[in-house]
Design a protein that fits this description.
The chain is mostly beta strands and 92 residues long. 8% of the residues lie in helices and 32% in strands. The protein contains one helix and seven strands. It has a three-stranded parallel sheet. Strands 1-6 form a two-stranded parallel sheet. Strands 2-3 form a two-stranded antiparallel ribbon. The model has no long low-confidence stretch (mean pLDDT 87).
């Protein structure tokens, strides 16, 4: 059975949709079951102009990195950020 608080027919007429969530980690059907050894950095990070494709290998300096521009994150208005890493998380 669905959660009564999230069931559309049970909610009030003034209920509104929640913003999307950005999660980082290893998940299965029970939730987060592990983390990656990633370097997570959030700050004023300029976009990388280097062309890329899904088939091309990632350079050694970019492996295991998650770099997020704080202005872009704010503009996207995420409902929740849930970032977990066995490595380092830095807020610049």
């Amino acid at each position: 059975r669905p959660d009564p608080g999230q069931e559309g027919y049970s909610q009030s007429q003034t209920a509104v949709a929640r913003n999307a969530q950005l999660w980082l980690g290893r998940f299965d059907s029970t939730g987060r079951n592990g983390v990656f050894d990633s370097q997570v950095r959030i700050g004023g990070i300029p976009a990388d102009p280097t062309p890329w494709s899904l088939q091309a290998p990632i350079g050694a300096t970019r492996r295991n990195t998650v770099w997020l521009d704080s202005d872009v994150l704010s503009g996207q208005r995420w409902g929740r950020l849930d970032l977990a890493s066995a490595g380092h998380i830095a807020l610049d």
